[in-house]
Amino acid sequence: MTNDSQQIVNKAWNFAHVLRDDGLSYMAYTEQITFLLFLKMADEQTKPPYNKPPIVPAKFSWESLLKREGDELEAHYRHILEELGKQPGMLGEIFKKARPEIQNPATLRRLIVDLIDVEKWSSMQADVKGDIYEGLLAKSAAESPKGAGQYFTPRELIKAIVDCVQPTADDTVCDPASGTGGFLLAAYDYVAKHQGKTLDKDQKKHLRTKFVKGWELVPNTARLCIMNLYLHGIDADPCPIKSGVDSLASDPGERFSVDLTNPPFGKKSSISIVNDAGDLEKDDTAYERQDFWTTTKNKQLNFVQHIKTLLKVNGRCAVVVPDNVLFEGGAGETVRRNLMKQCDVHTLLRLPTGIFYAGGVKANVLFLDAKPAQEKPWTKTLWVYDLRTNMHFTQKTNPLQRADLNEFVECYRPAKRHLRKPTWSEANPEGRWRSFDYEDLIKRDKVNLDIFWLRDQSLEDSDDLPTPDVLAQEIADDLQTALEQFTAIAEKVKG
Fold first, then answer.
1. How far is CA 361 from CA 21, 197, 216, 269, 320, in A?
2. Which of 131, 196, 199, 219 is surrounded by the most beta carbons within 10 Å?
3. Mean residue pLDDT across the chain
């Protein structure tokens, strides 16, 4: 998160405390602020240097809110939410079932004039609403023992992943767990940056209407995603984001050339729906799908199988997976064997701890290409980059930067993967990049892909120990991971 975004988050959090006094929850406040932010940013884009046609009817615009005070303002805000929810396409989806929660007109006026109107939101880093939403969730989690409950992908990691996959204007990009749209936006921005000046009329239309597709189970999060896409110029009807839909429930029938995603990390899978009241309901049963290699209640393994289904032949994928997907036996081994046989599983990035909002997260990015059916396995070599061993990051004091991933992207060689060279050798045992042949991988116990080789320096030299706060967080993360594994074992024993 940029310094600008962090300052805005702090400012927004202070306003949240004011609204708490009015009986508004943090989540309700966050939703209200996103409605107002959208109206403000839509207004900014009609002015220099953007000069775009208005996407919100004038009678419901930001300017119409600024002109009103008192009960008239509260009534007009209510009217705006109701009427915009009736609009066609993505605009109607953004305000679908939107309800005004701020009952005090003076508080609403302060929010509009003192917090939102004074900032130039469109000139900030692209996904500023996503940053605010995630920042408020993180702060709320710090005050709640239950935590945020969702693992948002760091923007700098998303950028590095997209730099490796290199989407083009001819691709179709999907994310079956789209969150606030970080991957979809990054793919769109990548094409706009690298091909924007050379696109023909049809390519521009494709980029605007058919380039991205996503699914998001939580309606409020889906709303943020749709807002972000809409404000970036994506305007499709029907809306490209399916809200309140459990993407694992069935094969959607569509196939995509690129899949970029960070699925939910919850291990236990249950079929989820959003009822008429907007609440989640879950049926604790395994997904029975003919296109899956195995039936399991493990949500992470189900997402890996689902992703394989979504890809076109020769489609590219980058998926964030927790460590257990790499080593778990049973269904995990079945998924890994089939994945390496039917796809070219060519790259694994071991992520450092401390980069996600929630603790206890040890994750990786798996890169693969879908392939046509054949007898021989498609995977020949798996290249592994270890960004975890002897690397220490924290959310506050040492957040992950895009520069921390430069060596990985260079080693990945997006356009020339056949020319990769390891940085590890017997002469350089500290090299973070090395390859493993398929024949050796398939012989490993349970086809375990949780591979590491670097010496942990902190175990050998106390002078190399991280600072106490980092060390404490790493211990807490390890304990959290161990607790999750013990819980999973206990559930299996019960079952």
1. 34, 40, 21, 18, 11
2. 131
3. 85
